[in-house]
Amino acid sequence: MTTSWAHFTDGRWLTSFATNAGGFMFALIALVAIPLLAYWATSGRRPAPHMMPLLAIVLVIALTVTLVDWTFRLLA
């Protein structure tokens, strides 16, 4: 997963995805979440009520992709 993150930060997104799809998804989530969280923290505003379930769904999907990817790697 760390290799996938390294490729992602170097801008090699296809290589990142090919290395570890779950790592790519978590890096993409972080890319979107960090500015949002920083905005909410500095402005003192709270996120909209629909944001928390949405974040939970996105994280569960990324975790599922990671577990499926690791399962295929173990069985291959």
Q: How would you describe this protein?
A:
This protein is mainly α and 76 residues long. It has one domain. Helix content is 83%, strand content 0%. The chain is built from four helices and no strands. Helix 1 packs antiparallel against helix 2, helix 1 crosses helix 3 and helix 2 crosses helix 3.
Question: Could you give a quick summary of the protein structure above?
Answer:
This protein has 76 residues and is mainly α. 83% of the residues lie in helices and 0% in strands.
Low-confidence residue ranges: none
How do the helices and strands follow one another from N- to C-terminus?
A: HHHH
Mean pLDDT over all positions? 92
Please tell me how large the radius of gyration is.
Answer: 15 Å
Shape by Cα distribution = flat
Give the secondary structure arrangement, pairings included.
Blueprint: H1 2-9, H2 13-19, H3 21-43, H4 51-75
Helix pairs in contact: 1-2, 1-3, 2-3, 3-4
Comma- or semicolon-separated keywords:
76 residues; mainly alpha; 4 helices; 83% helix; 0% strand
